[in-house]
Amino acid sequence: MLSRRLLTVTVLAFALTGAGGATAQTAIDLNAINDGGGGSDDVYEVVDGDTLWDLCSQFFNDPQYWPTLWSINNDEVTNPHYIYPGQRLRFQPGTDVRPPSIVVDSGDGDNLAFDDSFTPLVHFLATERDCELYVPFRGTGEEVTLRSPGLMTRQEIEPLGVIDQAVAEKENLGQSDVVYMRFRNTGDVNCGDVYTVYHHQKEARHPEVRSARLGHIYRVTGEVMVSDVGDKWVTGVMVQSHTEVERGDLITDRLPVSGRVRTGQLSSLVDGFIIDKLHDENILMQANQVVFIDRGKSDGVQSGTTFYVVRRGDGLARRPRDFDNSLPDQVVGRLVVFSADENVAMAVMTDQSTDVKIGDRITSRVD
Q1: Strand positions, DSSP E, 48-95
Q2: Least confident of 214-218, 224-228, 278-282, 363-367
Q3: Could you give the CA distance from residue 120 to residue 325 in angstroms, rounded to a whole number?
Q4: Which of 250, 272, 278, 311 could disulfide-pair with 290, CB 3.0 to 4.6 Å?
Q5: The pTM of the whole model exceeds 0.90
Q6: How many domains would you assign to the chain?
Q7: Residue 97 CA to its chain's centroid (Å)
Q8: What is the DSSP letter of 169?
Q9: What kind and span of H or E run contains 43?
Q10: How does pLDDT run across 3-53, given as a tens digit for each residue?
């Protein structure tokens, strides 16, 4: 027996026209259709061997009539041959605007049958609630650990020195590698001092106003500890690497790249943009992505301030003409500010459902 899920559609409908006009006829007596068993006189139960051909022959004296019956409802009845033993067909009288029809009788219970031992599991309960923007990322007020191996400054950083050479026979250096550094002034360098190693990545411009120069973005590649100070060379050991360290990387005073902050929301609505991000071009969506936003201390932003990344449009739209700006906003990520300057801030994506893009909009509140 085929699946009874097919029993939820109208199985049979018909319209007969008399010689005098096109009104629907309702003179069919289904008492004769009953299988004799004490049920309602407008219900027929399909028995083994029944076909639409046979039913048309029995009830309308014309087995060839079934294509006409199907044509009335072929937008609903995808296969007119699917009728099943035990299926109950209920007759519905026609009116002047609707032909009579026979539909599946749902009065006996479910379309699907389950054993008594079956217990359905309900994961979500329907509730009455106000309409609101769906936010898959919640939670403020908790402490989180952020790691941000980068920085953005209004003016270029004046380096203290540079990694010039190294002992290892490789281009990409890392933790425990010994390096030789040149400092502008070795008089202030002592054994045991730890410095930050970095390189200039790009000049930041606003994605909406390309002529607006916002500062300089640097990637922190690691930390080096001084092991020996000579007249010309300062020797050091890489004690930590955040990414590949290369000859030519610059040296400055130690900068924090991780810390714990307590998250919180601004009391007022502040909107802005993601103006750039610190990322690996070979990775599509990265956990704890470092981004830069065009809001800072002048907007009340500080370490721990939370923003939501919002986007609208179909996710598969690629060409500008395919974007439908009439679609509502959706939240695709949440970021927490690591450090803030006067007009810009550096943040970490703590949650994201897709890869964030330069130019994505941010908002401080979604309630």
Answers
A1: 88-92
A2: 278-282
A3: 41
A4: 278
A5: no
A6: 3
A7: 47
A8: S
A9: strand 43-45
A10: 333 333 333 433 333 333 333 333 334 344 444 444 444 566 777 777 767
